[in-house]
C-alpha cells in the first residue's frame, strides 16, 4: 500500500519529495507532478501525506 498521488489535487509544490526519508517520491513533468517513483520502497511513514498542502496523497491498499 504505497503512497499515491491524487492527480487532480497535486499542485507540484515538491514538499512530499523533500520530506520523504527514503527518496521514494519524485517530481516529474507529467500529471500528477509528484509521483511515488519507487512504490516498493515506501514504508507508509505518512510524512508526505502530512506535509501535502492540498490533500493529494493517499495510500493504495492492495
Ligand atoms: S509514506 Fe513515507 S516513505 Fe512512503 S512516499 Fe511518503 S514519505 Fe516516502
Ligand atoms: S506535497 Fe502534495 S501538492 Fe505538493 S508535490 Fe507532493 S503531492 Fe503534489
Describe this structure in words.
The model has no long low-confidence stretch (mean pLDDT 93). With 62 residues, this protein is an alpha+beta fold. The strands form 2 sheets. It has a two-stranded antiparallel ribbon with strand order 1-4. The chain has a two-stranded antiparallel sheet with strand order 2-3. The protein has one domain (3-59): Alpha-Beta Plaits. It is built from 2 helices and 4 strands, in the order βαββαβ. Bound molecules: iron/sulfur cluster (SF4) (2 copies).
Write the layout of secondary structure elements.
Layout: E1 3-5, H1 15-19, E2 25-27, E3 34-36, H2 47-51, E4 57-59
Bound molecules: iron/sulfur cluster (2 copies).
How would you classify the helix and strand content by structural class?
A: alpha+beta
Helix content: 10-25%
Bound molecules: iron/sulfur cluster
Mean pLDDT, all residues: 93
**Largest sheet report:** 2 strands, antiparallel
% residues in beta strands: 15-25%
Strand order of the largest sheet: 1-4
**Shape, principal axes of CA atoms:** globular
What is the H/E string? EHEEHE
Low-confidence stretches: none
The CATH topology comes to Alpha-Beta Plaits
This entry's quaternary arrangement is: single chain
What is the CATH architecture annotation?
2-Layer Sandwich
Main CATH class: Alpha Beta
User: How many structural domains does the protein architecture include?
Assistant: 1
The first-to-last residue Cα distance is 6 Å
Number of alpha- plus pi-helical segments: 2
The number of distinct β-strands equals: 4
Gyration radius from CA atoms, angstroms: 10 Å
Amino acid at each position: 500500500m504505497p503512497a499515491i498521488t491524487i492527480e487532480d489535487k497535486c499542485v507540484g509544490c515538491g514538499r512530499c519529495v523533500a520530506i520523504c526519508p527514503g527518496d521514494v517520491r519524485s517530481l516529474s513533468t507529467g500529471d500528477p507532478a509528484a509521483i511515488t517513483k519507487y512504490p516498493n520502497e515506501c514504508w507508509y511513514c505518512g510524512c508526505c501525506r502530512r506535509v501535502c498542502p492540498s490533500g493529494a496523497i493517499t495510500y493504495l491498499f492492495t
